[in-house]
Amino acid sequence: MNNRIKELRARHNMTQEDLANLVKVRRETIVFLEKNRYNPSLKLARDIAVVFGLAIEEVFLFDD
Amino acid sequence: MKRAVIAFFVSVLVLASVIMWLRMSPEGMSIHEVTQIGIIFLMVVFGLFFAWRRFSSVRRGEPVEDEMSKRVMQKASSLSYFISLYLWVFVIYINDRVDVDTEVLIGSGILGMSVIFVISWLIIYLRGLRNE
């Protein structure tokens, strides 16, 4: 599973810390998400999608 | 925050105990004792690192724990528990064959468990938690 968090964050002029504060996680978790080293829970995926005003499947890209 | 303070105090307490042990022990120390002290120092460093991580999270206004850190901790705990079972089997095997004090064996076993936990945590943290 890939994601567009880094791209969307840049588009919204947001730092990793800003996004982490908005979705109430550690900045480290955002770093791991952007590097595709962590698969988020459904809740966190939804929270991130809500921040960018998109649907989950527009932020998180599934291989199949 | 509370756990960070506890981790910090436990690390300081262990460090103080080791320093006392070093000062009270006779001049020559065996290789076994030196190894144990080395491992204890490493564990103290790891404990202080953990406390520092938590303190810095609080300072930045981040949650001390989130879903990723909890999952890493959970996986590290279960993995280290599983490996520790084999460690204790090995300790029992050694106990039957080598003439070592029971206290030393138990102490080594407990130290071994903490080392296994630290290594498990590091491996899981560095590898990340991807598709499972």
Shape of chain B: flat
Query: Over the alpha carbons, how many angstroms does the gyration radius of chain B reach?
Result: 17 Å
Alpha carbon gap, first and last residue of chain A: 9 Å
Helix content bin of chain B: over 70%
Please report the number of helical segments of chain A: 5
Number of strand segments of chain B: 0
* Mean pLDDT rating of chain A: 92
Gyration radius from CA atoms of chain A, angstroms: 10 Å
Main beta-sheet annotation of chain B: none
Q: Percentage of helical residues of chain A?
A: 55-70%
Biggest interface, residues from each chain:
A-B, 20 and 15 residues
Strand content of chain A: 5-15%
Written account of the structure:
The complex is a heterodimer of chains A (64) and B (132). With 64 residues, chain A is mainly alpha-helical. Helices cover 59% and strands 6% of the residues of chain A. In chain A, strands 1-2 form a two-stranded antiparallel sheet. In chain A, helix 2 packs across helix 3 (27-34). Chain B has 132 residues and is mostly helical. Chain B has 2 domains: 1-64; 66-132, no CATH class. Chain B is 83% helix and 0% strand. Chain B has helices at residues 2-24, 31-60, 67-97, 102-127. The radius of gyration of chain B is 17 Å and the shape is flat. At the A-B interface, helix 2 and helix 3 of A face helix 3 of B.
